[in-house]
Amino acid sequence: MTNKDMKAGRWKSILMLVLVFGPASFLILISTNKCEHKFEELPFYGRLDNFELVMLDGTILSPETQKGKITLFTTIQASCPSKCAINIPQFNLLIYQHYRKNRKKLGHIEIVSIITDENGNPTNNFEEVTFLLNDMVNDYDASIWRLASGDPKQIFDITHNDVRLIDQRDDKAFAGFPYLETMMIVDKENNVRLLRRGSDEGNIRDFKQHVALLQKQYDKDAFKSRSKTDE
């Protein structure tokens, strides 16, 4: 495949995600710097009311366990760590290491990656993916970047503007399904607040900025609440 074809495919994927999730996501994407100052809120794409994933330690992850936490969902595969759902080296440097180093302040933010095989099917191959992350990620901590087994469609079955994410197809996406490449921000009330493709460094940086934006909104709300209490 030529560089021209690869670039065309990447832009096609980004454009498709923008079209699927409407103008709101596009505006958020191009107005990141303004959001830092105006505290504009991230859009709402729906709620995760019913899901159940089995974690590496055997516990169950559900909407109830994630209340009060900001959860960053992805899928993950051991077969191609740089070219499948997420670019693991970039995700490590830009996302994981930031939350690992700031655990005292940001301990309520969890990364949850759902393991699939090379075809996007659910699998419980914890051992292989754990080995991969220990090999590729400096100071990997399984309590921060958590691995889960279960059907990722439970998480990514989002409909916006009458378009259902898990129904979308793209030959250039991992296993032909764009939802398998999607990074998702879920807020403390289990609302879906942002979706970005995880295979591109620029999208990973943008994703990180919007997690920070959501955190700033919570900080602002907490400040307002304290101010009212003090009155």
Q: Brief description of this entry?
A:
This protein has 231 residues and is an alpha+beta fold.
Low-confidence stretches: 23-37
Name of the top-level CATH class: Alpha Beta
Q: Helix count?
A: 9
| Intertermini distance | 65 Å
The spatial strand order of the largest sheet comes to 2-1-5-4-3-8-9
* CATH structural architecture: 3-Layer(aba) Sandwich
Provide the β-strand percentage band.
15-25%
- Rg on CA atoms, Å: 17 Å
Main sheet specs: 7 strands, mixed
CATH topology: Glutaredoxin
Number of strands: 9
Number of domains: 1
Helix content: 40-55%
Shape: globular
Mean pLDDT: 85
Q: Give the full name of the CATH homologous superfamily.
A: Glutaredoxin
H/E topology pattern = HHHEEHEHHEHEHEEEEH
Structural class: alpha+beta
Can you tell me about this structure?
The protein has 231 residues and is an alpha+beta fold. Strand 4 (109-115), helix 7 (126-136) and strand 5 form a beta-alpha-beta unit. It is built from nine helices and nine strands. The longest helix has 30 residues, at 201-230. Helices cover 44% and strands 17% of the residues. It has one domain: Glutaredoxin (3-Layer(aba) Sandwich). The strands form two sheets. A seven-stranded mixed beta sheet has the order 2-1-5-4-3-8-9. It has a two-stranded antiparallel sheet with strand order 6-7. The chain starts with a helix and ends with a helix. Helix 1 (3-20) packs across helix 2 (22-30).
